[in-house]
Design a protein that fits this description.
By secondary structure, the protein is α/β, with parallel strands linked by helices. It is built from 15 helices and 9 strands. Helix 4 links the parallel strand 2 and strand 3. It comes from Desulfosporosinus fructosivorans.
């Protein structure tokens, strides 16, 4: 195992077979070595910086029916909401005053927000705040829509590939197609977006081979951003009684992603903070370097429940901002309020 840990640290590469062996045999001591290697690799590319993004969850309406997701189309118990462009701009004003220079506009797949509506919103944000970066996380759209939004000024696009296993993907996403997801990511990259992919750890039916394939796929597409979080069951979904993913397994995947795609931006996800009060700090020490404090209005924030018991539901935006700053400093890192572009994009 020591040889494998040294290999991935020195060469930023492992075969699929080697990844599977590592996942099957890793010990607590091995994990600590892995996290240390990932932290040193992150520092080589980004120093001690942790970048902040203001997250605006602007609609929980979704046309898709993913088996794990609390806002899936067939969950009739969700109180649905949709922020107006004016309300989204208000969130940006608050976020800008708090120092954020990246806004993440995230929603379910809500087609009320057409290319025209979103394009006008993006243009207005850029007009008010020319130096900010805008990240979209709105799911699968037509190629023309992606092109139009990029032309309007969107900089980045987050779209987790969810799983690189076709069988597992299609079991979990009855309204979607595996090839479409990967085609969207390829298209976004071709258009010129900084692109984010990623996956969940601990999904029902997921194997070590699936996780190894996730890392192999990420190595192949070399995304600017990689979102990795644990599967947390939601009681109003078909997977509500399944066992969730663990903090430890997720941290291993975060660390391996840092080592295999060293120039990427990797968030310490809110889901990790939900599993463990120190989950986000542990992720920062295992190679993550982004935090996404929420600036969604508190009046609707709890309705954006992809999973249950999500933290920070009642916190005002300023509370999140200063809590996160304290957490970053206490963990031994420094907050960076710049745009925080990815290393490969900047270099």
């Amino acid at each position: 195992m020591h040889n494998l840990l040294e290999k991935v640290y020195q060469t930023n590469s492992l075969t699929k077979v080697e990844i599977i062996y590592l996942l099957e045999n890793i010990t607590p001591e091995d994990r600590e070595i892995l996290y240390s290697h990932a932290l040193k690799t992150k520092q080589k590319y980004y120093g001690n910086k942790v970048f902040l993004r203001g997250l605006i969850e602007f609609s929980n309406i979704c046309r898709q029916d993913c088996l794990y997701c609390g806002i899936r189309a067939s969950n009739a118990k969700v109180e649905r909401y949709r922020l107006t462009p004016g309300e989204i701009l208000g969130c940006c004003d608050i976020g800008y005053d708090l120092g954020y220079r990246t806004f993440v506009l995230q929603s379910g797949e809500d087609l009320w927000y057409t290319a025209e509506i979103l394009g006008a919103l993006i243009q207005e944000i850029k007009k008010r705040y020319p130096e900010v970066a805008i990240t979209l996380s709105i799911g699968e759209r037509r190629v023309e829509t992606y092109q139009s939004l990029f032309a309007s000024g969107a900089d980045r696009f987050l779209m987790r590939h969810e799983t690189a296993s076709k069988d597992l993907y299609e079991k979990l996403h009855p309204t979607m197609h595996f090839e479409d997801r990967q085609a969207c990511l390829s298209t976004l990259k071709d258009i010129g977006y900084q692109v984010g992919a990623g996956f969940m750890v601990g999904l029902p039916g997921q194997t070590f081979a699936d996780l190894a394939e996730d890392l192999r796929y990420l190595s192949e597409i070399s995304p600017d951003m990689i979102g990795i979080g644990p599967f947390i069951p939601h009681s109003e979904t078909p997977l509500g009684t399944e066992k969730g993913g663990t903090l430890e397994d997720t941290l291993v995947m975060v660390a391996l992603a840092r080592l295999l795609i060293p120039g990427s931006l990797i968030p310490a996800t809110t889901a990790l903070g939900t599993l463990n009060p120190q989950g986000r700090e542990l992720a920062l020490k295992a190679g993550a370097n982004v935090l996404m404090p929420i600036i969604t209005p508190t009046s609707v924030r709890k309705q954006y429940a992809l999973y249950e018991n999500k933290i920070c539901g009642d916190d005002k935006p300023e509370d999140c901002r200063y809590c996160i700053e304290r957490r970053i400093q206490a963990a031994g890192f420094e907050m960076d309020l710049g745009r925080g572009d990815s290393w490969q994009f900047s270099s």
